[in-house]
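Much of what follows relies on a compact textual record of a protein's fold. A complete example follows; check for yourself that the lines match position by position.
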Amino acid sequence: MPLTLDEANLVVAGALEKAVELGIRVSIAVCDAGGRLIAFSRMDGSSWAGIRGSMGKAIASSGFRRPSGDLAQMADSSIFRSVFEEENGRVIATKGAVPAFRDGFIVGACGVGGGTGDQDEECARAAVLKLGLTVTA
């Protein structure tokens, strides 16, 4: 079953909750298994750069079915460059997003931008797990 809008909004809410707990201002993007945006939110006072960052990280995480930070070492590979080109530069291979799996199948990803890479990933991970999904297949 694909990630629904209601579920995506719950993921956004979970990431916002974690960001408040950490004292950071972020943007949160939730995409489907194909890397297309389902839900998005930007906290008051967050950086404009987090908008594109959160989306690009979510696309990368969904497409490669792993945390976006794990992709940094692959960024120079021909496969990654080809996906990057196909997505018109929208894929960002840096820490801050995690995939979302249901029953072993990818249903989407949550990307966060605005804190450190570790803080962003912590927000994304907490939100996906809070919904009852997993971040590994």
About this structure: The mean pLDDT is 94. The two ends are 15 Å apart (CA to CA). The beta strands are 27-32, 37-42, 97-102, 105-113. The first strand starts at residue 27 and ends at 32.
